[in-house]
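Dear Dr. H.,

I hope your travels went smoothly. While you were away I took the liberty of generating a structure for the chain from your last submission, since the lab meeting agenda had it listed for discussion. I wanted you to have the full record in hand beforehand rather than looking at slides cold. The sequence, exactly as received, is reproduced here:
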Amino acid sequence: MKRTLLLALALSPLVVLAADDDPIPQRQDLMSDTREALKPLIGMSRGQVEFDAATVSDSLAVFATTAEKGPALFPEGSESGHDTEARDTIWSDPDGFQQRFTDFADAVAAAQAADIQSLEGLKAELNGVLGTCKGCHDDYRVEKD
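The corresponding predicted structure, in token form, is as follows:
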């Protein structure tokens, strides 16, 4: 009994490490962070939130992180589980999926380079960024209720 308990205690950090390596919760967290970073930008563009250039910059930095880290969080074998919204087309069309992330990264980089300092500038750049989000979601994301 003691030996079993000791073995279980010794292996428990490995189980935790394995869970931390699961790409599905990692990508869900990344996309959740992205969604949260988008909220104030949408509010600004609708006149519901006062324009703030620092918030715009922070949100774009989150988007850049998503563009950088996102593709690696969809490896083969992560098609299901954790109530994923990933559509099978991610793995049947990996080049197209990668291109969507590249398009997103390019739109984010353009928005960052624009150094947005006004609501008008935000609206002009946000449309390009959101267009890349929609394109990816239309083809590679399952809408959940």
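Two observations you may find useful: The radius of gyration is 19 Å. Residues 23-45 form the longest helix (23 residues).

With kind regards,
E. W.
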